[in-house]
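Format notes (please read before filing issues)

Several people have asked whether sequences and structure tokens are stored in separate files. They are not. Every record keeps both together, in the order shown below: the sequence lines, then the token lines. Line labels are part of the format and must not be stripped during preprocessing.
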Amino acid sequence: MRLLSSLALLVLLLLPSPSPAAGRAMTVDDLLAVKGVSDPQVSPDGKWVVYVVSELDRESGKSNSDLWLVAVAGGESKRLTTAAGADNHPRWGPDGKTIAFISSRGGSSQVWLLPLDGGEARQLTKLPIDVAGPIWSPKGDRIAFAAEVYPGKTPEETAAKDKEKAESKSKARIYDRLMIRHWDRWDEGKRSHLFVCDAKTGEAKDLTPKLEGNTPPAPFGGSNEYAFSPDGKELAFTAEPLKDEAWSTNSDIWTVPVEGGELRNMTVANLGADAQPAYSPGGRLLSYVSQRRPGFEADQWVLKFGDRISGRVQDVTSSHLDRSVLSYVWSQSGEGKKDRPGKVLAVIDSEGTEPVVAMSYDIDDEGLVVIPAQPDTLLRGGVNTAVQPSLRGGPLVYLHADSSHPAEVYTAGAAGSDPVALTHHNDRLVAELDLPKTESFTFPGADGDKVQGWLLRPPGFDPKQKYPVVFLIHGGPQGAWHDEWHGRWNYQMFGAPGYAVVAINPRGSTGFGQGFTDQISQDWTGKVYEDLKKGLDYALQAYPFLDGDRVAAAGGSYGGFMVNWMAGHTDRFKCLISHAGVFDLTSKYGTTEELWFPEWEFGGTPWDKPEHYRERSPSAFVQNFKTPTLVIHGALDFRVPDAQGLGMFTALQRRGVPSRYVFFPDEGHWILKPANRVLWWREVHEWLAKYLKNK
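Then the structure lines:
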């Protein structure tokens, strides 16, 4: 026995000791101190990148953003604007001498022009309403932008009506149709319209004065939803018709002459969603992304080319790319009157990452687009967005982030080689922190299908220790956990107190093929629940440092629904955290806004499929609730209204289950205000510590 003990001691001495931590564990103050780097735009000569840096002001609770400039070849970044408030959405003029951007420095958000050869920025538009998203015409004589007006009203009439409503003693709202509210805003009757202004005088004209829908679509559409034709004679734009708005996912690509005139619906035949119109460099093709199935917001986004001569429309991706095209850009290598040959760069959603792929194409004499069977993957790993070529055959410029690095502007060779960071706004902060990298793993899920997940080790990891586990469940449900830096559900923040993090991408997740995504619809509690259970079991077995006796589950939106479902179906967790979770499907249907979602996911309305709604509601299993649960909700959450959180908390309290309700009267589906984010993390960490820190 003495010899065996000596040998064991020798083995222990020879084992590598845990490496010293790279830095300290992350705090919520660190999360809020991260500078948001976004919207890189390459100059016409390919030499410069202008981009936006945003910083939170903890005192005011607002964000300050400015424009910065860096050379594509590398070097020190230069700050271009210093005004308080928001300076964002920079766009180069065609001659590369002027940058148009949005600034709030004058009291409202207007288009400003910044000369690059020196001098102060000057205000171009002076409308009595806010504007957004300026883009230049190819000749530089016009700028298009979006602004909210009452349909049929001028900006001046809109401002006057707003003033009248603000001064009215009655704040009643009256509606004759759905939808009356969306995400976190009530419908005030205004719609986003497309304007064009003179680039010298700022004189503006509404090109869609009678449009009842929004362009770009609300609430998340931006300037990638409208584009000038190469000859500058027309604009293509995305708009959502208001017919059956609450239960239709339809949006269409329209065109309008820049001088004003008749609007033409180019995709009227497709009742699914169409978005992101763009013209090919030579102008022959009008491209856009499209969803085939109406009523399904998570259908695969495919890239389509419309021939402006023949009228032929082609789906150019779905036959060889079983992934959604999230965004895309025409490469300048496709310049030419006939656009042949050419190339499109696209960001796709794939297996928990967002890579960039290149699709080469050619056009035959009949206008038929030919694309090779498989695209070339240029950039892999993490999340890569806002990609654009700098010059013909020159470097790529893009944003890159992963789970241990906030976004910075990067450059890489035209084929994706030798990626390097151009900006370093968060380097100092990241260097202070111990930010482990996420590790991908796969396991056999329900029916033996391959399912992917992520593991994050805790800071200061010691392989000889056992660590409590935070099991994360994503929302959507058609979403995914990516290798990304998340501003809210940040892996590092969950792991910071000394927890390992496990996050599974069960069926219903995007990026693993449309068939995999489809399998959750009308089955919210079947195979997806099996995937989650099997994924956690696999991780606990594969990673011996995970403590299976100390596991908590947390999720938001659908993830909150699944946490509520687990509360009635298992007692394996020490505690639960349900953020914006659905408690009762039937009552949620009558109070949510986008009705297409439950009607697709549950196969109809509650009066059509009452059993389906009832049998999959966590509210039907309250008698089984035992696990301590933290419930979080926002009053302005119109997607999952706050009665759902209150109902869950009421049931827990009535059952005598340890529980806490954290209610934010000034937040929606997401918790965004700095002080509220601090409180959110404090409550989450205290709840986890209460049940995970001690065996």
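For reference, the curators noted about this record: Residues 1-21 have pLDDT under 50 and may be disordered. The radius of gyration is 26 Å.
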